[in-house]
Amino acid sequence: MSAQPEVVDTAAAAADLAARALDPARRRPLVAVAARSGAPLLDVPGLLATLGERASVHLLTSTEATWEAQAPPARGPRRLR
User: Fold this and answer.
1) Is 7 buried (19+), middle (13-18) or exposed (0-12) by CB count in 10 A?
2) What is the pTM of this model?
3) What is the pLDDT of residues 39-73, one digit of tens each?
4) Dist. CA 56–CA 2, nearest whole Å
């Protein structure tokens, strides 16, 4: 069990997290917790203790990361049928 959440503090790290969340091969749930004024909005130690290895916990520590994690995934060119 990871005793600490994975910190997501940049737009690039948040985009990577979003890609992992949408990956159909992902085996475990992801829990993303945003922080406001540096403080997590949920009890991260409690989540880690409760979830153990059943889910990975990620802490979004910047506004930039939080916004990027909410962005719709980039789409490639549309194919004509």
Assistant:
1) middle
2) 0.80
3) 999 999 999 999 999 999 999 999 888 888 887 66
4) 8
Residue 74, CB half-sphere, CA atoms under 13 Å: how many?
5
Alpha-carbon distance of 48 to 11, in angstroms, equals 24
Torsion of CA 10, 16, 18, 23, to 10 degrees: -170
Contact at 8 Å (CB) between 73 and 22? yes
Nearest-angstrom CA–CA distance, 60 and 45: 15
The amino acid sitting at 81 is R
